[in-house]
Amino acid sequence: MEVPEQVLAIVRKAIEAYPDNISNTAEIAEKDIRKLKDFPKFVDTLVREAIRERIYDMRCQMNKELRGLDPNMEKNTAGPSKVVVGDSQTVRRAALSVYHFFIAGRTLGSFFGRELLEVANNERSKSEGHDCNARLIESLVKLIPRNKRVRDAISEAKLRNLFRQCQIKSNTA
């Protein structure tokens, strides 16, 4: 989605004002975005983007079902039906074909062989960023007392050094 630069600037300013509170950030950003002269033009784009985000959320849920990770997949909160037609694990798993597993915005079955290496590299680069974040947090667990914030327990210089170490490990892994 092509988000107008003015909207991005407002969002950045709101994030800087409330870096740890998404609700406040969103509220402040929304108020300022609504004041923009071109706001009515942005509405369609923003609604379309919200719908796309719900699609990504639903695809993630479907992937969890395919992996068998969804704890709600087995639950039947309505109780047993009088007549059960096609309500078996076999039928359910057949309907959730692994060809329909979503990766990089597409179903796994739709990829051509020539695309696979590039998709794998893109997926790996995303996961490496998350791995780096996890290593940084794990290194902080040993240093930060349970009832203190990171900023109150170690200096920015030490934190920057830990951050660099995690990045180096990511680049050599």
Can you summarize this structure?
The protein has about 170 residues and is mainly α. About 65% of the residues lie in helices and about 0% in strands.
Account of the protein in words:
- The protein is mostly helical.
- Helix content is 65%, strand content 2%.
- The protein is built from 7 helices and 2 strands.
- Strands 1-2 form a two-stranded antiparallel ribbon.
- Strand 1 and strand 2 (106-107) form a beta hairpin.
- Helix 1 runs antiparallel to helix 2 and helix 5 (113-141) runs antiparallel to helix 7.
- The longest helix is centred in the first third of the chain and has 29 residues, at 39-67.
Oligomerization category of the chains in this entry = single chain
* Sheet of most strands: 2 strands, antiparallel
Q: Write down the overall geometry.
A: flat
Percent in strands? under 5%
Overall strand count: 2
Rg from Cα: 23 Å
In which range does the helix fraction lie? Answer: 55-70%
Number of helical stretches of at least 4 residues: 7
Structural class: mainly alpha
The end-to-end span amounts to 33 Å
Spatial ordering of strands, largest sheet: 1-2
Name a few traits of the molecule.
173 residues; 2 strands; mainly alpha; two-stranded antiparallel sheet
Secondary structure layout plus pairing:
Elements: H1 5-17, H2 22-34, H3 39-67, H4 89-95, E1 102-103, E2 106-107, H5 113-141, H6 150-153, H7 156-172
